[in-house]
From TrEMBL:
The keyword Transferase does not apply. Belongs to the iron/ascorbate-dependent oxidoreductase family. One of its GO terms (biological process) is coumarin biosynthetic process. It comes from the Eukaryota. GO terms for molecular function: 2-oxoglutarate-dependent dioxygenase activity; L-ascorbic acid binding; metal ion binding. The keyword Cell membrane does not apply. InterPro entries: DIOX_N, IPNS-like_FE2OG_OXY, IPNS-like_sf, Oxoglu/Fe-dep_dioxygenase_dom, Plant_2OG-oxidoreductases. The gene is OXR1. Keywords: Iron, Metal-binding, Oxidoreductase, Vitamin C. It comes from Capsicum annuum (Capsicum pepper). Residues 208-309 form the Fe2OG dioxygenase domain. This is Oxidoreductase.
Amino acid sequence: MSLLPSWPEPIIRVQSLSKSGIRKIPHRFVKPPSDRPCNIMDITTTSINIPLIDLENLNSPNDSVRQETIDHISHVCREWGFFQVANHGISHELMEKTRAVWHEFFQLPLEEKQKFANLPMTYEGYGSRIGVEVGAKLDWCDYFFLHYLPQVLKDENKRPCLPVSCRKVISEYGEKMVKLSRRLIKILSIGLGLNEDYVHKSFGGDGESSACLRVNFYPKCPQPDLTLGLSPHSDPGGITILLPDTDISGLQIRRGNNWLTVNPIPNAFIVNIGDQIQVLSNAIYKSVEHRVIVNSNKERLSLAFFYNPGGRALIKPADELVTKDCPALYSPMTFNEYRSFIRTKGPSGKSQIESHKSPR
Ligand code: OGA
Ligand code: NI
């Protein structure tokens, strides 16, 4: 990976900017008119409920209830690339506790958070930009990024030590999320007609698969119509399980030419397909473009848990899904190589997965 050892420009902490009481956002955050959230010339913004799946049905003694649930998930992965899950087995108390410790972390004085300031080599820690291009437009967001898996990348010392319960809660949350992710990738494998451990094995299995968390913090923004919390992108990895604040929306997904605002359902998670599953499924499952809008009266926090292939895993369309009529759409690429694109250029819509298509 050809990533820089340090950020090419001084880092601007968005939360500090927001707190300073400015009425106008700096030009570095002002998006060109075509990228602004309110460019409604041919784009209408509507709020929607994305499909909700009750995971409890996967434990039903009734075969047909289980099969219907698998079919429903498979259908939404083809049609939406996004769905919400309820009765996922993670206690509402743990969800609430985890959100609360992260809200507390972001309220700490800047010096405390600066102890964990991150670098573009690994992105681990407290950060304020994705991408290293000099002069790039910036997003209205600070974040904290940490690794859970593989074990060799896990480092408790790189996790916040305040609030005091933080490390314990972060670990407990990670453990549960890895289990949920593994349950979901099994269902995705079955839904594609593959062996149930196909995705797990392709990602490198127990020892190599990776899992990480990015906690996004979107401060209040005095001019929310000029910028974005997170620019359009598709997630580069396997699957993402998002836990957003529920009293405020912000996530938008693209459907055709429309940006639809997702209504988060309390106590549910939002799951979306990443580029690696699109590649592995030979584009049967869709990694859908999404972005985040901000607002002037309330800050918003979201926990994006990414379950990904190991860095050295070579991801390619499953042989079983490649036929004469549906030739392989993508050539094999390691996840490390694939991910270096977004880490260098920042969020760029679906341009990477599009450019990764094999020549025909
Ligand atoms: C992400 C993401 C959405 C949100 O972190 O990749 O898309 O609502 N987050 O914060
Ligand atoms: Ni995303």
